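Milestone 3.1: sequence recovery, worked example.
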């Protein structure tokens, strides 16, 4: 009888303690850390989605944002080279010979304090590639455009943006037909 009483008292105390621990305070409010220009600077690990027609690839890449410039030490150019050469074996040989391609993407930051984000006006530069093929070198000039703005989000310290390779010129002549190559960075985390 005494054991039953102790067990009941223990269960009642446990339920009361559980009930108290689940109640929240009325003054629990999320106060975001306000962003400021310069918060977008840093090292990022990004998910890159590349689309060209029905082909889609995903990979993880790193980049650095500093002083209104995003710098990729290893920009993925496989789709560009494949478009120029139209042969996978030659593309792989050319990519090995070319090594890592650095690309710099300029942007202008604008603070949107009411949304706690920094808007990024992207200003893509032209990329020039020297593509070795069959003992010769083809010069490819890639023109990028950014039709949408990017954002640095203060809530999770992430950057989101995208741009498009919408024209390639090979040895002075426009590459036709050409299907645009979309580079989308839907989620890039600062580390």
């Amino acid at each position: 009888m005494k054991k039953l009483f102790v067990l009941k008292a223990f269960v009642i105390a446990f339920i009361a303690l559980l009930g108290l621990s689940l109640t929240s305070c009325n003054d629990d409010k999320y106060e975001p850390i306000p962003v400021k220009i310069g918060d977008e600077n840093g090292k990022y690990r990004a998910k890159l989605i590349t689309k060209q027609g029905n082909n889609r690839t995903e990979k993880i890449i790193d980049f650095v944002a500093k002083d209104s410039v995003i710098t990729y030490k290893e920009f993925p150019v496989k789709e560009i080279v494949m478009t120029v050469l139209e042969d996978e074996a030659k593309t792989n040989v050319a990519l090995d010979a070319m090594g890592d391609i650095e690309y710099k993407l300029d942007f202008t930051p604008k603070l949107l304090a009411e949304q706690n984000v920094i808007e990024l006006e992207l200003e893509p530069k032209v990329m020039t590639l020297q593509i070795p093929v069959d003992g010769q070198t083809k010069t490819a000039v890639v023109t990028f455009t950014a039709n949408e703005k990017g954002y640095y989000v203060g809530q999770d310290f992430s950057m989101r943006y995208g741009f498009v390779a919408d024209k390639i010129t090979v040895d002075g002549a426009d590459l036709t037909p050409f299907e645009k190559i979309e580079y989308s960075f839907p989620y890039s985390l600062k580390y």
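The helical segments are 2-22, 78-85, 88-98. Residues 45-190 form one domain.
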